[in-house]
Amino acid sequence: MAFTPPPLNNAGKAAGFKQLDPAKYTSLGDFIDQVNKPDNRDLLVKTYGNQGITGFLKMTGAVKANGTSDQVQYWEESRLHLRQKGEWIDATSFFIDKDANTDGTISGAGEFDNATVVRVNDVILHKGDRYVVTAISTASAGDADVVATVAALGTVTTPSAGDALESAAAAADGAAVIGNLHAQGSDQPSEFIESNVILRTNPYMILKETFKVSGSQATNIGWINVGNGDYRWYVKGEMDTRQRFLDKREMMMLLGKNNSVTVGGKSVQGSEGYFSAIEDRGIVASAGDSDFSTLSDIDAIITELDKQGAAPEYAIYANTATMLALDDMVAEGLSATGATTTGAQAFGAFQNDPQAAVRLGFSSFRRGGYTFHSKSWKLLNDPTLLAGHGFKGVMIPLTTVVDPKSGNRAAALEMNYKAANGYSREMEHWMTGSILGVTNANSDSLQFNYRSECNLVTRAANQHVLLK
Asked: Do residues 223 and 177 share a domain?
């Protein structure tokens, strides 16, 4: 009988000892290094700290609500007093452009969004001068545009043809209607101004994510403790996928756009985010006004807030560079003028507890009747996310707004999620596969699925400030 015996020397492999020249022998460990257990530290070092960026919306008072349609609609009050836009034709009449005809009279954005606000007998204020409207007539046959004829009320600076009907303090906003004058025995006005509310809508957006692990990888034990004594690396992957999904969902509620695109032949609907809402109808402070190098920067913003009937208490979330500039401004500018960083400040957002603001990482100062609580926003400092994209911070009113239709009070920011009859799409999470106790698919793997249908409603965006 012929047979092949096994190798005599470790299946042809070198022994795990006597691998060094005996002349270099110093310890037993030099000879049996391959059987020694590595001195492993199983702690996973958080090299970049806590990288999750969620929580901003909750900290700023955003509330959660359910939605039962493809979009949310909400109502905002319009201005009580409206200005009249137009352009002087001559010293006693001005033109009000109301249609899209090419008149060559008024140019610029908003040319055709110009209702007739003034009525006969109204008194208007233009660059400090007062005029009484004596007649309103059609500009030309078949044209919706009108011409208002006026009489000077006292001595005025004669306007020139082509001058915009504006005030010196608010160019392009038009002339203010400050009242009216009527003769004795005259009738009541035949026209009146109806109150109005502004209907706004914001569609929902759908976000999805997936993570997958094979059956073999699910049973591998690694060197790193990923939490609670678990050494299975896929657990770390699943946790990171979940956090990335939550981060991306929040960033889409901040940075989303209400536009749709076609992907793979299907329409994909976006939703208006917080920054987009401010850019569209809020206060955008850029260049010098957002540098906070001197008190004039914060004063310019306060002046704009006053125009919008803003709340007396604001939270400033900004990147580190802006926070340092704010600190320097407070230390140098405010203290030099005697303004307060303590004392008669409002802390309503913190149950009137100044120490609560300190515990949450806010520093506060008061200027021009407003209290500002400032805090560094890590999202704007992250070089893999928003850092370097021109966003420096936001200023958020710490208040509620009143719905002009129902009178109900609501938070300025509202996170909405689709839900009905006990089914919620706020944060759906389910697994498909045939391992780890899941038996709803034939694949030798487990897939983790995430889905959310959400949007953010920004009420009274005119009182919010975006720093760019």
From this structure: no
Q: How many CA atoms lie within 13 A of 103 on its CB side?
A: 23
Q: How many residues does the chain have?
A: 468
Q: pTM for this one?
A: 0.78
* Residue at a domain's end among 177, 194, 211: 194
Q: Tell me the pLDDT tens digit for each residue of 242-276.
A: 999 999 999 999 999 999 999 999 999 999 999 99
Do 203 and 190 reside in the same domain of the chain? no
**Beta strand 413-420 with 63-67: parallel, antiparallel or unpaired?**
parallel
- Residue numbers of the domain that contains 411: 40-78+198-468
What's the pLDDT score for residue 8?
66
Q: How many helices (H) and strands (E) does the chain have?
A: 8, 25
Q: Are residues 44 and 162 in the same domain?
A: no
Alpha helices by DSSP H, 210-273: 215-218, 233-255
Alpha-carbon distance values, 22 to 18, 31, 32, 283, 341 (Å): 8, 10, 13, 79, 74
Instruction: Check pLDDT > 80 for residue 21.
Output: no
Cβ–Cβ under 8 Å, residues 329 and 322: no
